[in-house]
Design goal:
6 helices, disordered N terminus
């Protein structure tokens, strides 16, 4: 008989294991070339427990960013053409977790605003006390594609603030989401909490779904554009569904296999202690407690969306 489970995530956040926007479904396979013989041969794959010999970091930094669309705009060019525009606010911050003291603190946060458009004539917009700096996008700049243009400046903001906040020594930086172009940051892992693709063949996927809390899979290599070393880890507090509490962790392809395995061990020894609880977070356990707190703080720093929308409306009206 088929077993069924209720996903622990609030449905307004989607699912913890979901298909792509193309509707391929949760079982859709990735076309990426995968090397599963990195840590152990594929035939020997099995869940890996945390070794007592793993040296846990004294300090863990977690970085995340948030963004919000404040208003959609349109330009009226002198030649009669028109371009879509998007006024957006975004922020990045870093939480420092001292594992010895059991204390967490915000050590850096920064807010930025941008006007994203393909218009060749658009300039910065001063909306009250807030300035939206123009970011010219390439191509025709369709309105539906403008939200994606915010990711580049947001990632740059995350990199900048991470570099400023970190210390020397044996710390660990956890980036919420894939590493992408943050792969140059030292001692850094990407934390992917929503699984949209299956990268492994069925026999090895069974190893993933058999993981117990704090167990991980062996390290494998993803041959994608932003590819690198990767592994799966199950967090405590899962519902019991096959993919509940499963996260995918990755690190830079510039590391050696041995360095990747070391980071995999460190992640399995460190991340489970940050897992959230269902009564506190609608995306438990994957939405780590420090990340959830950081997101709330950053959204507060973005300001009142209604006030900014009104200020943008007045500013563009005066400009006309």
């Amino acid at each position: 008989m088929t077993r069924m489970f209720v996903d622990a995530w609030d449905p307004s956040y989607g699912s913890s294991f979901e298909g792509s926007d193309g509707g391929e479904g949760p079982a859709s396979a990735s076309s990426a070339q995968v090397d599963t013989d990195v840590e152990v041969p594929a035939a020997e794959w099995a869940p890996i427990d945390v070794s007592s010999a793993v040296r846990r970091p004294d300090v863990v930094f977690l970085v995340d960013g948030v963004r919000r669309n404040d208003a959609g705009l349109w330009t009226a060019e002198e030649d009669g053409t028109s371009y879509a525009g998007l006024a957006a606010s975004y922020a990045a911050g870093v939480v420092r977790c001292d594992l010895a003291r059991g204390a967490a603190e915000l050590v850096g946060a920064r807010v930025a605003r941008g006007l994203f458009t393909a218009s060749p004539s658009a300039a910065d917009v001063q909306a009250g006390s807030v300035r939206y700096e123009v970011h010219r996008v390439s191509g025709t700049g369709e309105a539906s594609k403008l939200p994606a243009a915010v990711q580049g400046p947001l990632t740059a903001l995350e990199i900048d603030i991470s570099s400023m906040a970190r210390e020397g020594g044996a710390d660990l930086l956890v980036v919420d989401g894939p590493l992408r172009n943050r792969r140059q940051l030292p001692r850094t892992i990407g934390y992917v909490k929503t699984q949209q693709k299956q990268y492994l063949p069925a026999a090895l996927t069974a190893v993933v779904t058999s993981l117990k809390p704090a167990q991980r899979t062996p390290v494998f290599h993803l041959g994608t554009v932003w590819g690198g070393w990767s592994w799966y880890l199950r967090l405590p507090g899962a519902s019991g569904a096959p993919w509940s509490g499963i996260v995918r962790v990755e690190c830079s392809p510039d590391l050696t296999p041995a360095e990747a395995v070391e980071l995999a061990d460190i992640s399995a020894a460190t991340l489970p202690r940050f897992a959230s609880s269902a009564y506190k977070d609608p995306r438990a356990p994957q939405n780590l407690v420090p990340i959830a707190g950081l997101e709330r703080r950053l959204r507060g720093l973005l300001g009142d969306a209604r006030v900014l929308h009104r200020a943008l409306t007045l500013a563009t009206a005066r400009a006309r």
